[in-house]
Known about the structure:
Elements: H1 3-30, E1 38-46, H2 53-60, H3 63-69, E2 73-81, H4 85-93, E3 99-103, H5 104-117, E4 122-127, E5 133-138, E6 153-156, H6 162-173, E7 178-179, E8 185-189, H7 194-202, E9 208-212, H8 215-222, E10 225-230, H9 231-234, E11 241-246, H10 247-252, H11 254-273, H12 275-290, H13 294-307, H14 322-335, H15 344-347, H16 350-361
Parallel strand pairs: 1-2, 1-3, 6-8, 6-9, 7-8
Antiparallel strand pairs: 3-11, 4-11, 5-9, 5-10
Helix pairs in contact: 2-11, 2-12, 3-11, 4-5, 5-14, 11-16, 12-13
Amino acid sequence: MSEAGRTSVVVIGLVVAVVVIGALAYLMLSSPSSSQLQSVVIRIGYQPSTHQVAEFILVEKNWIVEEAKKLGYNVTIVEEMFPSGPPEMERFMSGALDVVYVGATPVIAEVGHAIDTGAPIAKIVAPANTMGSALVMRSDFNYTGPQSLKGCRIGVFPPGSIQDTVMKKWLKDNGLTYGGPGEDVDVVLVSGGPQELVESLCAGHIDGALLPSPSPEILEMRGVGKIVVTSSEMWPNHACCVVAISDKFIRDYRDLAVLIVKLHIKAQQFISENVSETIDIATTRLSRDWQYNESFTRMVMEKSYIENPTHMEFPTDLNLIVDSVMEFAEVHYELGYIPVHLTQEDLFDFSVYQEALSELQD
Length: 362
């Protein structure tokens, strides 16, 4: 090789070395080490339901933790499980949770009171699911329509829950009174969760129950009850579970709040695009949470997500649930659950959702 050739090789080698060293330096500067990351604990409330499978996806696939590193955070996720929405929101309003997957109506109930008391305010930032509940009557019951429920005892979650609200509005719309003994329908408020309602029906303590998926599927598979009407028929296209974040968390960690909503939207899309893997994730999580064996849980998940008898939907557009949530708020005011009329600004933070959407579209 000539002297000029050797010189060219040396020059090229030096250029490559400079480029490689520069790239490594950039990566070291742009990717903070663990010692440079800000430690943040994100406390998430959820319920063991097929409605909130997006939460399972986020946590089981470690999306929040991994993506938060790019923003300079070392995130630790702490989950807390609840039997239904009202106790979950009580915990939230005590300041013990940052993010909740919960029914829209428990948010309404707590915000309605928090406005007067100054407690932590929940802001709805994304939809988790719509519809997805069903009225299940004992197997030998002859259901011919709402009027056939006269004299029945129907179990629901505590006041302020989605199921309590839907049930009472539907009975009223059909000219039926409700309450305790002596009314057309004895609405029994169960303080526990789905398991308590399932066991109450199994034991014959109630004639039926309005329950979120997958409890209706479980009751049918056990041969204990039968779905007679879905919540989508009782209140068409109603909102159900939402993602809510405390306004304090949004103020203190806005970038993380936007990240959570962005990843939640991604998880909602994952559900419809990857049904088989969604079933896998839900089976693993719920068999643990319910303490059921995995084979039975998988059968329940397949019935819930493939047959979908309760008409669950997992929208990504926050605007699709606004009218329904505001209608819920008016019903809550009429029922005396909240002392004030609420506005969209009281309940929603559209700016966080819009920022998340913009980042997804970039």
